[in-house]
Structures are given as C-alpha cells and as structure tokens.
Design brief:
The structure is a homodimer of 564-residue chains.
Chain A (H helix, E strand, L loop, with lengths): L1 E5 L5 E5 L20 H8 L114 H9 L2 H4 L12 H4 L11 E6 L2 E4 L8 E11 L4 E10 L6 E4 H15 L19 H20 L1 H4 L2 H8 L3 H13 L11 E3 L6 H37 L1 H21 L7 H27 L1 H33 L1 H6 L5 H60 L5
Parallel strand pairs in A: 3-8
Antiparallel strand pairs in A: 1-2, 3-4, 5-6, 6-7
Chain lengths: 564, 564
Amino acid sequence: NMQLAQNSRGEVGLVPEDYIEVSYIVSVDVKTPTPSLGNVAASDLSFFDAYAPASTPAQNQVMHSCNAGSVSLLQATNGNDPWSAWNADSSGGSTNNWASNPEGTQTGKSAPDPWPPVSHGHPQAYQGPGAEDDEWDDEWDDMKSTGGYAESEAGESGALQRGGSHATSMKISLNKFPGFSKSGPELYLLCKQLVKGKDRLPIYMGEVGPVWSYPETQLDCVVADPKKGSKMYGLKSYIEYQVTPSTTNRPVNHRYKHFDWLYERLLEKFGSAIPIPSLPDKQVTGRFEEEFIKMRMERLQGWMTRMCRHPVISSSEVFQLFVTYKDEKDWKMGKRKAEKDETVGVMVFSTMEPEAPDLDLIEVEQKCEQFSRFTKSMDDGVKEILTVGHEHWKRCTGPLPKEYQRIGKAFQNLSSVFTSSGYQGESALTDAMTAAGKTYEEIAQLVAEQPRKDLHHVMETNNEYKGLLGCFPDTIGVHKAAIDKVKEGDKLVAASKITQQDKVTMAKRASTMSYALQAEMNHFHSNRIYDYNRVMQLYLEEQVKFYETIAEKLRQAHSQFTTM
Amino acid sequence: NMQLAQNSRGEVGLVPEDYIEVSYIVSVDVKTPTPSLGNVAASDLSFFDAYAPASTPAQNQVMHSCNAGSVSLLQATNGNDPWSAWNADSSGGSTNNWASNPEGTQTGKSAPDPWPPVSHGHPQAYQGPGAEDDEWDDEWDDMKSTGGYAESEAGESGALQRGGSHATSMKISLNKFPGFSKSGPELYLLCKQLVKGKDRLPIYMGEVGPVWSYPETQLDCVVADPKKGSKMYGLKSYIEYQVTPSTTNRPVNHRYKHFDWLYERLLEKFGSAIPIPSLPDKQVTGRFEEEFIKMRMERLQGWMTRMCRHPVISSSEVFQLFVTYKDEKDWKMGKRKAEKDETVGVMVFSTMEPEAPDLDLIEVEQKCEQFSRFTKSMDDGVKEILTVGHEHWKRCTGPLPKEYQRIGKAFQNLSSVFTSSGYQGESALTDAMTAAGKTYEEIAQLVAEQPRKDLHHVMETNNEYKGLLGCFPDTIGVHKAAIDKVKEGDKLVAASKITQQDKVTMAKRASTMSYALQAEMNHFHSNRIYDYNRVMQLYLEEQVKFYETIAEKLRQAHSQFTTM
C-alpha cells in the first residue's frame, strides 16, 4: 500500500505505508503536578507578576499581539485534569476520575484516553505548498472506531477518545509547526483596538438571563445517502455524504475530511466561547463496512444537528459555506477565506456585544465557578450512565440472551423426551412445552436486539454530552484566566505594566466574556433539557414496548397449556 | 453441646458433640470398572452359572430364602452409574454425566453427590436395645440444607443429594449391621410358596395399558403448623408438623424423623416396584430458622402429596397408620408391626395380581428397555432444566437486579445534578428523571423477588422428578436382573439347578413384575403430565404478570416526561 506523505521539508510524494511512522506529541507529564489551565495563563503573564511561579520555556512562547491570527486556545490547555482548577470547589462526594487517572501519562498510539486535545497545530500550516488538500486523506488516522458500545473501551474513553484521537492525529506528527504558539485571554483583554465588522454577535437579556440571538426559524440539515467515490485512478476511495440544509433544500456533498475541516475552523474560531464537540472517530479498518458507514452517518447527523441548533455557529460564514456552497470553485474560495479568518481564538469575544450593563468581577467569578461545578458534576453523572449503560449493553447482548436461549432449549428438550414416552395423550403437553421453549428463544432474540432500539439512544446522547462537557474545561479555563488577570489589575497598574484605562477595559471585556459564557450555558441548559427529555421518553417508550411484547408472547405460550 | 450417642457395644449415653465422629461407608470403588446392577445380580447367581464373572465376597452374601424379612433391595445397588446397564441403548446425543463423574470416587462428608443411596442398613437394627427411638434425633445428620437454589451445589446434586445424604447418615456410621444382606429378584422368582393375604395388589388393564387399582376419592394430606417442641427437660428441641388427611380431617403430629421412619418403611416394602422419592434434606445448622422450616414443610408437603397420589402407597397399612393413628399407643404398636412386615423388597411382587394374560419374555424385555431409556432421557432433561434454572436464579437474584439498581441510581444522580443547574424550568425534567430512576430501582426489586414466585416451582417440581427418576435405575435393575434370570432358565434346567416347573414359574413371575412396572410407568406418566402442565402454567402465568408489572411501571415513568 502506498501512501501520500510529506517529509519535514514539506516535500510530498507517494511512499510505502510501512515507512510512515505516525508519532504523537503529548507534552504533558502528569507525574509531576502540572499547573492548571488557570495557572498556565498566570505563568504566561509572569512578566506582569514577580510572584508567579517560574514557567517552563515552552510555556513562555506567548504572542502578545491582537492580530496573532489563528492561535488555538487549546494549546494553552494542559494535561491531565482539566477540572483541577476547580477541584476545591467541585461538588463533594463525586470522585474525580481524571485527577488520579494514570492513563494520562501514556504517550503514543495505545494511549486509551488522550485527553484533552492538546497541541492542535496551526491548521493552515498542514497543507503543503501546492499540495491538493483532498489528498490528505482519512487513512492517516489509524485510530480504530469503537463501533457499538459493547466493543468500546470502558466508560472513560468514548466521546473523548474521538476528540483525543483527532487531536493527536497526523497533522502534528509531521512536525511542521516549529513554533507552537499559545495565548491566554490577555490577547483579547488587552487588545488595543477591537475589530468591528459584520460578524457582530449580540447577547440579549432573555427570561433565563443572557441569551444568544436566535433565528426565527432554526436551520436543520439532513445527512444522508453515503456514496463511495474514488480518485487517483481508483487508488484511493472514500465515502461522500449528502448534506441537505432546510434553508435551500439543495444537497451538497461532503467527505468526512470536509467535516473535519469544518470542525477545525469552528474550534479555532469559536472554541474559546462555545464548546465544539468532536466529530465521530476516524478509522481506516472497515471504513467501508455498511455498519460503520451507517454509524458514522448517524453521528455526523447528530453533530450537524447540534451545530445547526447553535445560533452563533449555524449563522457563521464558514458553516453557511459548508452547507450551501454552489460549486467546487465556490467551496475552494470559501475555504481559503475561512482559513485566513483572523477573528479566532479569544478574539471571538471582540465580536460579542452584550446589551446589558457590565457585571462586576465578583458576579463574573461566581457565574464561572457555578458553571464549572455544574459541568464537572454533569460530566461525572454522564460518565456514570455511560459506564452502567455499557455494562447493561454487554449483559443484554451477551449472557442474558444466551441464558434465555438455554431455558428455551431445555424446555424443548424435555418436551421431545416426553414425546418419546409412548404414553397416550402426551401431545397436548409436548406441543405447549415446545411452544413455550420457542417463546423463550424468541425472548432471547428480543433481549439481544433491544439495546440497539433504546439503550443506543441513551448512550449516543450521553456520549455526545460527554464530548460537549469535555470542551468546557477549556472554555471555563479561559474565563478563569481572564478573571485572574482582572484581579491583578491594580498590581499591574502600580507596576506600570498597564494603564488605568487598560484595567477598566479588561474588566469590561471580562464582563463581556461572562455574558458570553452565560449565554452559552443557557443555550446548553435549554438544549440539555430538550435532549434528555427526548431521549428518556424514547428509552422508556421502547422499554414499555419491549416488556409488553414479552408479556404478550408469554401470554400466548401460557394459553397453549390445557386447563385442568 | 451434648449428644446422645451409641458406641459399638450398643451402649447409649450423652457425649460431647465434638467427640462424635460421623463416618460414611461408601463401599464402591469406581476407579475400576464396576459391574452394573444387572451384572451384580448375575454374579449373585454365580452358583448357577460357571460363566459368570468372579464376584467379590461382599457381593456373594445372598440370602436365598423366601422369608428373608427386611432385605433392602438398595444394598444390591452399586455405585457410580446406575444407568450403565442400558448405556448401549440410551438415546444418542445426551451425554451420560454419571458414567464419567469422578465425584463418585469420593468418600467422606464432602462427597457432593453420594449417589445412589448405597448400603441402607437394616432399619430395625438401628434401635439400640431399650433405647427410646425418639432420642435418635435429627442432629445426627449434619448435612447442610441447600435452602434456595442459589446456594445449592451445581445441578448434579439437588434432590439426589438429599437422598444421598440420607443414605450415608449416622445409621450406617454406627456400624451396627455386621452382616449386610442383599438379594436379587431370584428371591421372588424362585420362591416356593407365595404369601397370600389382605395385601393383595391387583393390576388392571386400563386404556393406557396396565394400571394400579385407583381409589374412588384420592387421599390428600395437608402438612402445616410447624411447632417447636422440646423434651429431656429442654435439652433437646425439635419441630413438629401437623398432618391432616382428607379422610378423617383429624390432624396428627409428626416430627421429621417420623417422616423419615415412614420413608424407610415405604422404601423397604415398595422400593423394588415403586420409586420412593427421598425426603428433603436433614440438617442441623439453622434447623429452627423460619425460612428453613417453611422450605422443609413445603417439601414435606410435596412428598406427602406425591405419596397420597399413589394408590398402592396411600392405601398401604403403614401409610394409613402414619396419617390416622389415634394415640401414642396406637402409633407405637403400628410401628412395631410395620417393622416386622416380611413382605418387603422383591417379595412385594408376590402380592401383585395382574388381571391379564402372561407376557412373553421379549415383550417384558422391550418394555423394560423402553422405560429405562425414557427415564434416563428424562433424567438428563430434568437435570438440564435444573442447571439452567440454577444459573438463571443466580443471575436474577445477583447481578441483574444490581445492574437495574445502578441504572436507577445513575438516572437519579444525573437528575440531582440537573437540579443544581440554577436554570429555570428544570423541575419537570428532574422530577421525571428521578421517578424513572426510582422505577428502575423498583424493577431491580421485582427481578430479585421473581424467582421465588415462578422459577421456584419449576425448580421444586424438577427437583422432585430428579429424585423420583433417581429411583428408577434400582427399580429397573431388578427387572433387568429378573429377565436375565429367566433367560438362563433352560441352562439352569439343563444343569439341574432348577426344575422345569421353576422355569415356568420364573417366566410367569417376570410377567407379573413387568405388569407392575408398566402400571407404575403409567402412573408416573399421568402424574408427570399433570405436574408439568401445572408447573408450566404457573410459571408462565407469573412470568406474564412480572413483565406486565414492569411494563406498567415504565409506562407510568414515561408519562411523567412532558411531551414536546
């Protein structure tokens, strides 16, 4: 098998697959206590504050410029326990799996839970000069799909694994980003001049508090009709999905890697303010298997639906391009434009305009901690459901139906023994016993099939939420860092690091960030209530049907026995 | 704890419990191929036939007398595989557990399946001279009760364990029967003069073939009202059950040991012709625990019901004594008389009078082999149900409800996280999710309790049948031995071992034995059809209720979610 590859000098060519060594850069060493996200930001500001802990050289590569371009927030994120910033505040009783999870120390391919998505490189950089981007294909990522829950790793992995595998993909391994840049919220907080433009994102005061501006009709997209395509004279083949937005009702075609490109753009642009859930797993093996394609399509649909539901994302230029591009040329031009967008990372807050009075720092801090506590608790709750659901799935598809089958077989075997008795008037009993035995075999079938009908949805929804919740530590980390910055305001003024005006601007901008966080939390809550209501209803409805079907089958089996 | 014990010289006295060593005599060594019951009988007749294999001295202790008194058929039974006589004929496909069961080689207390009930001693002999029999108490047997199925040994044990433990009980260990006697069917076949008396047992030709004479109204007994009694100034306490027969409606009291005495009498008298199922386990530990007493009573009730249903047993003098004795004196006199009954063992066939023409040997042999095959197959089928049921019981009372409980807790936990969101309009969802969680906890409870309501009856019935079927190899072995004897007729006549008239008598008596076997098989079949019909109906009825209850609970849980 030949693969398109690029060497460290940027030269591209076909090389045997075996020659390619995919390496992962995981820069976190959790064996020593690692500073929390908030602390990292603080150390980034060590030139402001002599009391800050000494920072490592790598942590000091801060680009203090308003026009830093595509600086990914995620690079500032650090390691093992994204919730550690709020550990002291986290709701008592719930254990923090992540803090004590030694898996985080692993590097390389086999790391089961490469969380969080560290070291996202500069996305523009991974297209070699002149290299047709279409040629960077899915095959680069050799993470295996988890498929159903029964086969997936234990609760800890799941959605985060998807996000994680994504983050540690080939793009990094090619090592084309010599200077990883990172930034804290100061980029926005202390920016001299904010970009004003059409991208204005208003935040209103609604009944529940700050809310985004919602469109009158919600965009909806259908992902359907997966088709196999090929190029390079059949050497490379791929699956193309049809995406049809409710606005134009005109389908556009997208490969998984296009979704991935969109994800990267959204993460880069909105990730500081809005949790952007990861896409479903990449995978090479069995990538064209019907079951896998169906599952991926279902998950891409879920992802698109969630994106469509978000007023900020669905109305963004890049998202609109994705769902409504007119032709190849339109798509290519749009892509290039999106990749050149400079209002990314924390700078997205510069486009947000809350229509409400500024909040004081105490209120900002309280909100931030409240959301952190909640998302942490919910993350625990969701993981518990996934773990329990995973166990239940295994039992329902493994030992339980096997047992019902054995019960059915035992009844039928005894029935056929009875048939051999030679005693007259045996058949009424043996017919009924055989029927009862067959009924238990049918029940075995029902039991084994049921999880795909109900538990599946509970698992998918919670998996989605696990992915979403996994984004919050970053989002909240940015806010926490901003708060720390504002708190240092007086000290910085006294040391003549910033002006009094800078300090006032910082506080005002932290207030804007807080409004954005509140709007996002309110969006999250209303979606959460809708999603859980829906999935619980669906689950219970199917469960009722399941038990009723079994009862009815048994009632029929019972009626075959003669009353005496 | 002091115990009444008797030493080898027959002296009785109170000794510390720890001093008593209960030893078991298991004389079978299955490491070397053991002769089947049929062969044993053949070797017992080695003085008739020079071609017979050399027999061990113990096997030669044949008492060739018509009035041998209480000679237990069971002593002739031998070890490991009671079905081996028909192995070649046994239905293909079903594995013969017993033939390859190495457990049979074990001796001592821990032998898990002491089958068959070997070496039943002479029942009269175990009452020391002058020793009040009431003082030989249950405590002598230290076999533990199996209680529910969940705690019992794997499928192999169960009912046979009861019978087995019974057989290897203290009575043997005291070693008071220096000369174990044993006999084959020749005792009856060649007996010069048959006892004629009121005990005449007619066999009629019914629709299904030979049948016992059934009474117009069937005797029924209620075992109820267990009461704790004590004697020896409170040193010894016991449980007394009230037995009320439907004929007199006058309750009589019996301790477990009285049931045991009755069992011994019935086994001794009818065991060659009628399978007498063992009583439920004896046990010392926790013997007064409510649950145990309830279970034992239920099983004694089951045993009594089965005995009542049998026309030969229920009308026998000893059984009538047991259920209708008038006072202590009546009981004691009746006991003594029963123990002196000489028409026991194979001699019971001498009281049977088939009202049909004699059968030829081929027909006798065919019937015998048919019943052997059937009982062997059914034994396999019943054991399969017990094994599967045991597994199912464990799952339903162990991991399954635990899982439902965890599902319930996970829903409730997530619900309480949601409650902490601070978002308005949360309560509709959280109330519903809490209710759903509680519903799954209730389901956990239902699942755990269900086996006692339905599977319990399936297990009890099959356990009873396992016990019954375990008696057939002996019964059938006697017939097989008789057939072998008749086959040797010409040879024996030629060798002047028997007369021509003896040969004719033997054939006629073998025919009588065959009628008895057929009557018993027809009784067995009709009871079996009734029992399995009943227990399957009961099981399915409860299963329907179970699934309907769950469906209804889930329907209620579902209705609490708001429709959107």
